[in-house]
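Please check this chain.
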Amino acid sequence: MVINNFFDYFELVLATTPAQKRDVYHIRYQVYCDELGYEDKSQFKQPLERDRFDGHSLHFLIRHRRTGLAAGTARCVLPFDEFGHKQSLPSEHFCQPALDSSIITNLGLRRGDYAEVSRVAIRAEFRRRITLDHQVYLDHQGYQFTSDELQSFSHIAICLYFALAAYYQQNQNIHAMIAIMEPRLMKHLNRPGIHFQPAGQLIDYHGVRQPFILYKDSLVSDIKPLFRPFFDSVCQLVTDELIEENQLALDIA
């Protein structure tokens, strides 16, 4: 199955180097500024979309192996910075009235116990649905993609959400993960077994959005059997990346 060959065509990394972060910010600029117009291009001196939350976020990056193209990115905004100082989350600035605070209260969560999924973006070349009439597809920039590669494109978003879920599962200090998303996205996330639950009312923020929450206790058991090997592979990659990053931090210190 194509899903089992995903990592033959793509690699998943934790974006920590300046070059990797430039790729992250550039994808976001392409999607949120050029394509969707959500962010004002005049606010950025370079084609790199950044904001106040990037400094206390964990960034994942997916790269197409053969071309080297950065294909997709997502971040987990953490409630603390590297020095342990409390930091705010995007939803607290832009969508706070929509979030049902009673859900957080009933879970016994305090400020700092939960993180936020944010800035999930996939480069346009890797979101196109192509009729697979030929063995090779040539896109408008001259990049060639085989039919097997094209079929794997639909799993880029799943891989990004699996990476976020894997980090969430492994971080003992994060007890809930929230997201402000389009409700229709739930259909796509439910397919592999990522079950975000509604956590507030609909709000108009770059279109119709709604707060959702992902519970940790059923996270792993909810993953569908068909996608479990894929999820396990992502978990191992995330673990390896986090171990390497921690080791680098220790070496620098």
